Amino acid sequence: MSATTRITVTLPTEQVAELRKLTDNVSGYVAEAVARQIRHQLLGDDLRRHQEEQGAFTDEELAEARAKIFGTAGRAGHTDTA
User: Fold this and answer.
1) What are the distances in angstroms from CA 73 to CA 7, 11, 53?
2) Is the CA virtual torsion 77, 62, 59, 46 positive or negative?
3) Rounded distance, CA 47 to CA 68, Å?
4) What pTM, to 2 d.p., does this model score?
5) Band of pLDDT at residue 75, cut at 50, 70 and 90
6) Are 34 and 46 in contact (CB under 8 A)?
7) With contact defined as beta carbons under 8 Å apart, do 26 and 20 qualify?
8) pLDDT, tens digit, for every residue of 40-72?
9) Which residues, in sequence order, are CB contacts of 57 under 8 Å at separation 6+?
10) What ranges in 1-82 are assigned the alpha helix state H?
11) Using CA atoms, how far apart are residues 63 and 59, in angstroms rounded to an integer?
C-alpha cells in the first residue's frame, strides 16, 4: 500500500450525497478521480510539448492514434473534446 496523507476537501453537499450513492469508499473514489485527472493533465502537457517540437499532428497520425486507442470499428468521423 502506498503512503497516504489525510487532507480536508470541501465539496458541495449535493456532490457528497451523489458520491455516497455511488460508493461506500469516498476516499478511494476521490483518489482515483484525482489520479485520472493528473494522468490527463500530464498527457496533455506531453502532447502539447511534442507538437511544439515536432509540429501539429497530421490527420493520419490522429486517425492512427484513435484506432490504437478505440479500435477501428465504428469510430469514423469521431471527434474528441478533450
Assistant:
1) 44, 40, 32
2) positive
3) 16
4) 0.69
5) very low
6) no
7) yes
8) 999 999 999 999 999 999 999 999 999 999 997
9) 51, 65
10) 13-22, 26-54, 59-70
11) 6
